[in-house]
Write a structure and sequence with these properties.
Length: about 180
């Protein structure tokens, strides 16, 4: 983890919940306190995202319905270390582009999803400072994807009913795997 100066030694890699876990459909609660509990959650999100090779990871995906997500700008070819964004909200979007998208909570499922070509968001840093971030391409896709997670929305919600029907058996397998993890 020495490549990432904002990552501490005490975080741990957590299990990423799979499709079917109700927390993925839960609207995340805003974070109101910056304390040690949040610091640990931040480190866990960062470490889990890096170890799972994700572009981003919402807290819901590790079973915590709080309004925070981790983002790895380096996965979007930006020279910035991974960070967490707290209480994010989209303030502007432009354009639309359709690209293939996947999700750590829906492994091995990739679908073409329409997303804004450009997005501007605001939120707070791990230190509680206001943050504004904007991006296009994969960064815009990742920002909107993670904010969707915090609203209980999955990328497959943006595909056609026919595509979802074609995925039905894979989704059922994921639900069964998640159910077995939770027993």
């Amino acid at each position: 983890m020495s490549d990432f100066p904002n990552m501490k030694d005490y975080g741990k890699c957590r299990r990423v919940v799979l499709y079917g876990n109700p927390v993925l459909r839960t609207v995340a609660q805003p974070i109101t306190e910056f304390n040690q509990h949040l610091e640990r959650l931040i480190q866990d999100l960062l470490i889990t995202m890096i170890k799972k090779d994700g572009v981003g990871l919402a807290a819901n995906q590790i079973g915590v319905p709080s309004a925070i997500f981790a983002l790895n700008p380096q996965a979007c070819n930006l020279d910035q270390p991974p960070l967490c964004i707290i209480n994010p909200e989209i303030v502007a979007t432009e354009g639309k582009v359709e690209e293939e998208e996947g999700c750590l909570s829906l492994p091995d499922i990739y679908e073409i999803v329409p997303r804004p070509e450009f997005v501007r968001i605001r939120g707070f840093t791990a230190e509680g400072r206001p943050l504004e971030m904007e991006g296009s391409g994969l960064l815009a896709r990742a920002l909107v994807h993670e904010i969707d997670h915090l609203r209980g929305i999955l990328f497959i919600d943006h595909i056609s009913e026919l595509r979802r029907q074609l995925l039905a058996s894979k989704l059922k397998q994921l639900e069964e795997m998640e159910r077995q993890f939770c027993e």
